Amino acid sequence: MNIQAMMKQAQKLQKDMMSAKEEIDKTEFEGTSEMVTVTFNGAKKLLRVKLNVSEIESDDVEILEDMFVVAVNNAMNQIDKETDEKMGKYTQGMPGLF
After folding, report:
1. Tens digit of pLDDT for each residue in 29-75?
2. How far apart are alpha carbons 14 and 90 in whole angstroms?
3. Shortest CA distance to 40 belongs to which of 2, 8, 83?
4. pTM of the prediction?
């Protein structure tokens, strides 16, 4: 294989990787717990927080804080899983690249 063909193949791989990353970044991930729903994009930016106010009583603030943590971690895990699934074919042997 000549160097030009290798460069062309590397450029295509880079383009495919960036396309997959853009797709992940545009995807919305919803993390939920009993009282909280959070929505992030694939770039891990918080887009929305929804509270189920009918479930919240005045003494539930500490529980609500815990539920918020659960919902955020749930959404982050979904983003990591999607990123691993879509980017894994490009980053074999290089974990944590994205």
Report:
1. 999 888 889 899 999 888 988 888 776 777 777 888 888 888 889 99
2. 9
3. 83
4. 0.64
H helix runs in 1-98, sequence order: 3-26, 61-87
Q: What is the 3-state secondary structure (H, E, C) of 83-96?
A: HHHHHCCCCCCCCC
Question: Closest Cα partner for 41 from 71, 89, 84, 76?
Answer: 76
Angstrom distance (rounded) from CA 28 to CA 67: 20
Find out whether 38 and 68 touch, Cβ atoms under 8 Å: yes
Burial of 29-65, coded b for 16+ CB within 10 Å and e otherwise, reads: bebbbebbbbbbbbeeeeeeeeeeeeebeeeeeeebe
d(CA 82, CA 65): 26
36 CA to centre of own chain: 18
